[in-house]
Structure formats: C-alpha cells, structure tokens
Design goal:
There is one protein chain. The chain has eleven helices and 13 strands. The protein is of the alpha+beta class. It has three domains: 97 residues, Elongation Factor Tu (Ef-tu), domain 3 (Beta Barrel), CATH 2.40.30; 122 residues, Up-down Bundle (NADPH-cytochrome p450 Reductase, Chain A, domain 3); 33 residues, no CATH class. A six-stranded antiparallel β-sheet has the order 7-4-11-2-3-8, covered by helices on one side. The chain has a three-stranded antiparallel β-sheet with strand order 1-5-6. Its cofactor is FMN; FAD. It holds the Pfam family FAD_binding_1.
Length: 353
C-alpha cells in the first residue's frame, strides 16, 4: 500500500494547498526538518526525594480495575498442562483477585499488562547509553498535550523501558524515518532513508516484517544512530506496550475470588537465529509463585461469547483448534448451577499429551 499511498498523499497536499492557501508569512515545513518531540524530558538531581511511585499500587477502594487502574493480582499457581515432550507449552495460571471487586461470567476476557524482560531492558539502556536509575519528569512540548496516563511522575528510565516502551514489537516505517534524523553515520542514514521511502518498502518488509525483527534488534543494527537518539524522542520513536487479552478459563461460582487462564507460550522460528517469543506469554511463563509475592496488573472486559441463560438448555460446545478456555469456564459455571447436558468437543494433536 505504501507505494500507492505516497504519491497519492503528495497529490492530496497539492490540492489542499490550492483550495486553502497558507496565510502570509507561513511556510510549509520541509521534510528534512526534524519535528520537536511530543514531550521534553527533565532529569532530576540524584539527591531529590524519591516518591514511592510504581505501576502496581493496589487500586483505590471502590474504583473498578481498568486499563488506567489495573488490579495487582497475586499469581497463585503456574503449571504446564501439556506433556513436557509436546511441541507446545500450555500453562494453567491462576490469579487471586480478592478485594478487587472484579466479577465476570463465562465468555469474558481478562486483560493483562505485560512488561519487558530485565535482560532486554539492560541491553536497551546500554545501546542508548542510558542510566536505568536516572529519574526524570516529562513536560509536554505543546501546551494542552496530556501526559502519558500510565507513567508515574517522576519516573525512572528503568520503569519507562520495563513497563511502557514496546521494545520487542516489530518496528514500523515511521520508526526508521524518525531514526534517520538522528544518524551521524552516512551509510546508516542512507539505509534508514531507504526503509522510510516508498521505493524501499519491499526491502523493509524483508528486513522487518517477514523475519519478525524486534525494535531492539533493529536498534542493534544501527549502532552509530542508536547511541545518538535523544532520550526525549523515545516516546515518539517507540509505541507503548499494549495489554493482552485472554479468555477466562474458570468460573467464579466454582473458584470464588480466582481467575484462571489457559495460555500457550508463543515461540516460533524465523530465518533469524534467535527464536521469536511472545512478550506477554514469555513473561507470564517465567513467573513462579514459589519465588515470593508475584503481582500481575489486570482487569476484566466483557467477552463476545454468550451462553444460554435458561438452565434447562443443553449445550454442545465445539472448539477444535480455537482454544478451550471459555468452554472450560462455561462448563464449570453450568455444573456449579446444577445444569445438565454439557458436551464439549475440543482438539489436541495427541491424546496422551
């Protein structure tokens, strides 16, 4: 689409300018000009007082957990349900949501806010020559721009990179375009400009999308440019980590104050030597309640599946290859209500695994 949209956009701006000419004294900003960042970043002195701010504050009483105020749920158990020899690692994970006010029924979805691994955070900070323990406050460049709601103020670089910047996502074309402005190395700058041009989109697709190369890996490939990125541009360069949705696999009637999920750990090979890993599933799979008090930020949303309200309706549920989680919740719920006639067909490649 880029090959088509670029010339179309140029023609669109020409037409708009003809219809609505610029006021006298105003010039069009040249594409060679780097626009200011959305926020400016002000480092705090080392000796300024430390607020005990953090993402995982238990939510205020009466406020139902939401994206802006997730509930810090304690992980109760994390067990593998497929055989060790099975190609796919599937976990049954249980969270304690006592005191959260969360309610749900079969078919609903739990949203989980993941975080980057400490190794990736450390690599990123080394590449960009950032001190993870430095504290800063953000100020909007333009009056009226709101600050990112999920970042505490003040914030450490480590918190920003761990909880906010999606350094494991596949970067977009705009990432390479903005990066090219910081490049002090001619070879790197030429490559970055090619990746952000209409002609270079096939090349970018082969470099980025086909092998699912991450933002962190792309930054490794442009070392001269990466160490020249001003920290205030990080929020323009890298999108925020999006929450992940999981079908709830349990019923409150069968397990009061608990949420269970069935999660396949995402891991696959591309032509890159390092296997690709899902951000959220890898993080959750690595957590173990035996290590102490493990907290995961979550909240619940209504799902798209509806099960019959009439207790006497028998139900046949079929989930071959789509995942069994919502049906598991529905069967627990129906059995707890004394409903009969529950049939579930589900797929697994080998009975024994």
């Amino acid at each position: 689409p880029d090959a088509v949209v670029d010339p179309w956009l140029l023609a669109l701006w020409d037409k708009i300018l003809a219809l609505y000419p610029l006021a006298p004294g105003l010039e069009i900003i040249s594409p060679d000009v780097r626009l200011p960042p959305k926020y400016t970043l002000h480092y705090l002195d080392e000796d300024s007082p430390h607020p005990d701010g953090g993402l995982l504050q238990p939510t205020a009483a009466r406020a139902l957990p939401s994206e802006l105020q997730p509930f810090a749920a304690r992980m109760v158990s994390n067990q593998r349900v497929t055989a060790e020899s099975h190609f796919q690692d599937v976990r049954l994970i249980e969270f304690d949501v006592t005191g959260s006010g969360i309610t749900f029924s079969a078919g609903d979805v739990v949203m989980i806010q993941p975080q980057n691994s400490p190794e990736d955070v450390q690599q990123f900070c080394q590449l960009l020559r950032l001190d993870p323990d430095r504290r800063f406050v953000l100020k909007p460049t333009e009056p009226g721009t709101s600050l990112p709601a999920l970042l505490p103020q003040p914030c450490t670089i480590r918190h920003l990179v761990t909880h906010y910047l999606d350094i494991s996502c596949v970067p977009r074309r705009s990432f390479f375009e903005l990066l090219s402005y910081f490049s002090t190395n001619e070879l790197e700058r030429e490559k970055l400009q090619e990746f952000s041009s209409a002609q270079g989109q096939e090349e970018l697709y082969s470099y980025c999308n086909r092998p699912r190369r991450t933002t962190l890996e792309a930054l490794w490939d442009f070392p001269h440019t990466t160490c020249a990125v001003p920290p205030e541009y990080l929020l323009d360069l890298i999108p925020r980590i999006r929450p992940r949705a999981f079908s709830i696999a349990s019923s409150l009637l069968a397990h009061p104050d608990r949420i269970q999920i069935l999660m396949a750990v995402v891991r696959y090979k591309t032509r890159l030597s390092k296997p690709r890993r899902g951000l959220c599933s890898t993080w959750l799979a690595s957590l173990s309640p035996e290590q102490g008090d493990i907290r995961v930020p979550l909240w619940v949303k209504k799902g798209g599946m509806k099960f019959p309200a009439d207790p006497d309706t028998p139900v046949i549920m079929i989930g071959p290859g789509t995942g069994v989680a919502p049906f598991r919740a529905a069967i627990q719920e129906r059995v707890a209500q004394g409903r009969r006639g529950n049939c579930l067909f589900f797929g697994c490649r080998q009975t024994s695994k």
